[in-house]
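Support case: iron/sulfur cluster complex. Customer-provided input:
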Amino acid sequence: MNEIKKIVIFYFSGTGNARQIAVWLSEFAAKKSIDCQIFNIATTDQNTLNSLSKNLLVIIISPVHGFNFPKITLNFIRHFPKGKNRIVLMNTRAGMKIARFVTPGLSGISFMLSSLILRAKGYKIVGQIPFDMPSNWLSIHPALNENTVKFLYKKNYKRVEKHSNKIFSGKSDFLARRDLVQDILISPIAFGYYLVGRFAFAKSFYASVDCDNCGLCVKQCPVKAIKMANERPYWTFQCESCMQCMNICPKKAIETAHGLFVAVSLICSMLTTIILHNILKISIQSLFIKLLIFGLLFFALLWVFYKIQHLLLRNKFIGKIITLASLTHYKFWGRYYLRSKNQRQIKF
Ligand SMILES: Cc1cc2nc3c(=O)[nH]c(=O)nc-3n(C[C@H](O)[C@H](O)[C@H](O)COP(=O)(O)O)c2cc1C
Ligand code: SF4
Ligand code: SF4
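Agent response - structure generated as follows:
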């Protein structure tokens, strides 16, 4: 077994969880006098990868998005040059708290796909470790409260210590294998999210009338997915739903357009039925065609309606109505608890 002397950590993080794991790892490494460098995938020049020395341990940490790593992480992994390093893959998933227990998130194909890509380039995967950090997916659920976030951080701190001891002593650690069956079962949803779903979620964000056009969200977005259009942030299909912009906006002006999604879904259902029954005269049982028509209509209408919504937001009265139809606007929904005020200023 080879004791580890040098580590390089690459992380991507939307709301700070993956970054926190990277920081804890570097602290535990320092205690063992292991040389450790941390790089943020969003700001790291891909050429850094060409100068990785052969015997250092590489650790990659990223949140799971739709049962897979987000595109920015996968792209980074795809661009690794051929190499022989040992690599530990880690993810942060949607942890929740029930009583004194942490309920786990789902890794899906995040480890399987990235391991395949890296193995094909010659690397040796020596670990796949998930961490159930607080769930940050505010498009679909209310924010966890501060105590729950603190509880989950405390639990994960201990887990990072335990797993770092193992990997720093040169052992392999495949904790993720205990979830293999469920991860394989949900893999079709992972592909669905990656190929289709994430584009719909990209259009779920808008800046309400409370936006003062400060430009922070445009500047901070790790994938430069927000542009200014008519002096208002406009979300493009590049958005990875990392949730950073929504949680750093000083005015709490970034909302999820739940109302828009309900309206577009209802219109698409009606139009799909009309097209199938009255125009194509195909039996409603043909589920594949129904889904295909619904999907095509959904994206076409979402694109158009999103543009219209963007224009209507200029009108204060209509803007207020749009905001009232967004669950994220209400106090009970809240925002993701960013652990330190500094997190609002830094690149995660
Ligand atoms: C768009 C999106 C999709 C997500 N999908 C999953 C998922 O498939 N499985 C899971 O366990 N957690 C999922 N989550 C939760 C995050 O992975 C989790 O909260 C993670 O700790 C966030 O890390 P970060 O703060 O470094 O971005 C999702 C979150 C978002 C925003
Ligand atoms: S950070 Fe908030 S207030 Fe600033 S431009 Fe973005 S949405 Fe508007
Ligand atoms: S637009 Fe917001 S949610 Fe989307 S990738 Fe950028 S910071 Fe993340």
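Residues 344-348 have pLDDT under 50 and may be disordered.

Case will auto-close in a few days if no follow-up is received.
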